[in-house]
Design brief:
The structure is a single chain. Helix 18 packs antiparallel against helix 19. By secondary structure, the protein is an alpha/beta fold. It has one domain: Metal-dependent hydrolases (TIM Barrel). The radius of gyration is 20 Å and the shape is globular. The longest helix has 17 residues. The protein has an 8-stranded parallel sheet with strand order 1-2-3-4-5-6-7-8. Helix content is 50%, strand content 13%. It binds zinc ion. The site of zinc ion has 6 residues, from strand 1.
Length: 363
């Protein structure tokens, strides 16, 4: 807040002054991050389990008396070379073994929020995969309440408003998902919506029509991963069959011009995760990423970190690499920051507040 107040004051002074800005405070040139702070954004595509950093994995393993199959941090880090989505998911699920208690989930959430605040995140919609914990014998109350206990104080402690999204594993059955959703509703879990994640290919949206209808009926917001590794038809089906309000990833829409036109017309939010796409080989290199083409097409895209502990960085790292590798302009970065805020499930009041903050941020 202090930084933003300071920037606003500097901006006003520059606007009122008849003389050109001094060389050390350029108005339009690249302004160092430390002058105006990171771009204020909403993070809409974030799996809390994917924020589990190697150091925390070792700390939690020690606390819970769990023997890890890695000798040290370096050996664990050496496993972070993925060939596809499944190779990542194998390590991702294995590392979750250290999450046993409510405190573990709370510590993981707190660590993410502290890092996200430095990245400029001002609103976060956080996905939790309850089924990935239930299958390990961890109670629904433990994982949900562990995360939620920290989200409840996030705005006060980190300046980040939050919403919790229960994501369902698409490689499991719809009945299994429905059972968990009913339990979440019965326990009055503080969830704002549902998502659909994990292994995409072979698990099309059609498999989860009843789940999403039930969620809508219960007044929950809806998003689904589609068009990451799966074909453009998965995006169409997520919209038509699941009635989702956002598409997570969605990069393969670019293979279907009619779909692109529809997404532009309907302003459908696509939560793009550039570093994730590179690490999971959805694109060969960041230079090959379709993001510039998506922006040029007029798509409603935002930048997100997905599973930042696994994919080489948080939201600020994604923006930094997009700027340095593909020369993304400040204008496009601000446009995507605004997209992220408008595409969130936050209240209209909170969105207005964040858009005003973005406008005053000096970016
Ligand atoms: Zn994801």
């Amino acid at each position: 807040m202090e930084t933003n107040d300071g920037v606003a004051a500097t901006g006003d002074a520059a606007a009122d002054s008849p003389v050109p800005p001094a060389p050390e405070s350029p108005a339009f040139a690249e302004v160092p991050e430390e002058v105006h702070g990171p771009l204020p954004v909403a993070e809409l595509h974030l799996h809390i389990e994917g924020t589990l950093e190697p150091g925390l994995i070792f700390d939690l393993a020690e606390r819970n008396g769990i023997q890890l199959p890695y000798a040290d941090l370096d050996e664990l880090r050496s496993r972070y070379e993925f060939t596809d989505l499944q190779s990542f998911l194998d390590l991702y699920y294995a590392n979750m073994a250290v999450l046993r208690t409510k405190q573990d989930f709370a510590d993981m959430t707190r660590a993410y929020l502290a890092r996200a605040a430095l990245a400029g995140v001002r609103h976060a919609e956080i996905m939790l995969d309850p089924q990935a914990h239930l299958s390990r014998g961890v109670a629904l109350e433990t994982c949900v309440n562990g995360v939620a206990s920290v989200l409840a104080v996030s705005e006060e402690e980190f300046g980040i408003s939050t919403l919790l999204i229960a994501a369902f594993l698409r490689d499991l059955t719809e009945d299994a998902a429905l059972e968990v959703l009913e339990k979440l509703l019965a326990m009055n879990a503080p969830i704002a919506g549902i998502g659909l994640d994990s292994a995409e290919v072979g698990n099309p949206p059609a498999k989860f029509e009843r789940l999403f209808a039930r969620a809508k009926d219960a007044g929950l917001r809806r998003t689904a991963h589609a068009g990451e590794e799966g074909p453009p038809s998965y995006i169409i089906d997520a919209l038509d069959l699941l009635d989702v309000e956002r598409i997570d990833h969605g990069i393969r829409c670019m293979e279907d011009p009619d779909l692109v036109e529809r997404l532009v017309q309907e302003l459908t939010p696509l939560t793009v995760c550039p570093l994730s796409n590179v690490r999971l080989r959805a694109v060969d290199t960041l230079a090959d990423h379709p993001l510039p083409a998506m922006l040029a097409a007029g798509l409603n895209v935002s930048v997100n970190s997905d599973d930042p502990a696994y994919f080489g960085g948080y939201v600020d790292d994604n923006f930094a690499q997009l700027k340095s590798v593909i020369g993304l302009s400040e204008f496009d970065c601000v446009r995507m920051a605004a997209n992220s805020i408008r595409s969130s499930f936050a209240s209209e009041e909170r969105k207005s507040e964040l858009l005003a903050e973005l406008a005053a941020s000096g970016h």
